[in-house]
Amino acid sequence: MAGAALLAATLTACSGGSGGSGGSDGGAGDAKMKKKPDMAVSVNLAGDQVKAGEPVKVTLAEGKLSEVKVTDAKGGELVGQISPDGRTWTSERNAAPGTEYKVEARNTDSQSASTRFKTSAADKVNKVSIFPGKNSTVGVAQPISLVFDNPVKNKAEVEKLLKVTTSNNTEGSWGWMTDYSGNDRVDWRPKEYWKSGTEVKVQMDLNGVNSGQGGGYFVRDYNTEFKIGKDRRLKVDLNTKQMTVTEDGQTVKTIPVSAGTPGGQKASWSGKMALMSKEGTIRMNSETVGLGDAYDKMVKYSMRVTWSGMYIHAAPWNAGNFGRANASSGCVGMSDTNAAALFGMAQVGDLVEVTGSGSKGDAKLGNGYTQWNLSWDQWKAKSALTGAQQNG
Questions:
Q1: How many Cβ atoms from other residues are within 10 Å of residue 236's Cβ?
Q2: Is 143 within 8 Å of 274 (Cβ atoms)?
Q3: Assigned CATH for 128-229+376-380
Q4: Percentage of residues in the chain having pLDDT higher than 70
Q5: Which residues are within 8 A (CB) of 308 and not within 5 positions of it... i.e. 6 or more apart?
Q6: Do residues 161 and 204 touch, judged by C-beta distance below 8 A?
């Protein structure tokens, strides 16, 4: 590897070496045997360790390699390829930080040798939070969302190691953004809403990958799998003050609501969003969302729509406005009875679409799952591999 020193380690061959074990006079027979040299291999080292975040390179001093196996202490194997000239083997993936590996090599003369080496520890470790969770069932608007603990400068390198497999070849793309928390985030959104029943698997082969300046190394792989449930959509019309709930295209419930008060910070967000979570009975305090002392109360059947604090929930104190006026502090409120029924049927990832006048505009990218407000071409442009935001 460029910039890495090669340390040759001559190893005792397991076969070939001294002459045969024939008759007692042995000398004449042994003189006719050609002694094979011991097999010597080297591993790319920086100092006394292999540098983490780079492929492992095994080099044969003489002859040709026929097989190389590199494994860690847990039995995990680094897959690699032997070069056309047979002299070197290079792993397809990077060496993971702080890991001990065993190298077992064999040449075309049936000699074998082994050695061990360690990789340098990571100065900083990057971790990933993954949504949706493993084995969950979610709605048709739910993206795959990865939020990183530390900055990711090497976005293209990370993205190319993220693989999405679906049961029906769903078309989609990764897109980078800044999460509401301020952290780097990458989501995978289908071109169209998911089809009910789709099975999804995500493989993230990140172990040993360098995030870039300030981000550190990933020290493990990640994966998740989930299924798409019923096609349910919650459509709020700010003009009629009604929420229409559809399942598989058929209206199953119409609910009188009162959304955010138009004309200021208490207005609701509009646009297409995905239901983020079902939180039940929670304390809502207006000071946490920058609205002073407007309210502080326990609220039932709460379902989060944005990180900035927009919810769908029961609001019995606002009963006189259901279906008549938008007079809340930004959330979509309804009666206890309707909220309980909706809470019982809704699932994380259901589409929430808010239309009509009096909103404060579409929620910004990163404030929940709002990428559905972008066209397909706009979304693909967020990819570090195919879009315009190379290296973010």
A1: 24
A2: yes
A3: 2.60.40.3710
A4: 84
A5: 180, 269, 289, 363, 367, 368
A6: yes
Residues of the chain with CATH 2.60.40.3710: 128-229+376-380
CA distance 207 to 125: 11
User: For position 286, what pLDDT does the model report?
Assistant: 61
Instruction: Give the C-alpha separation, 16 to 62, whole Å.
Output: 15
Tokens representing residue 15 in the block? 């076969």
Q: State both tokens at 60.
A: 């044969």
Q: What's at 355, amino acid-wise?
A: T
Enumerate residues 6+ apart whose C-beta is below 8 A from 32. none
Q: Is there a contact between 248 and 191 (Cβ–Cβ < 8 Å)?
A: no
Contact 143, 350 (CB under 8 A): no
pLDDT tens digits, one per residue of 351-385: 999 999 999 999 999 999 999 999 999 999 999 99
pLDDT in tens, 211-252: 999 999 999 999 999 999 999 999 999 999 999 999 999 999
Region(s) of the chain under CATH 2.40.440.10: 232-361
Q: Report which residue type is found at 216.
A: G
CATH topology of domain 232-361: L,D-transpeptidase catalytic domain-like (2.40.440)
Closest CA to 331 of 319, 315, 316, 352: 315
Which part of the chain is CATH 2.60.40.3780? Answer: 5-118
The CATH topology of domain 5-118 is: Immunoglobulin-like (2.60.40)
d(CA 93, CA 255): 54
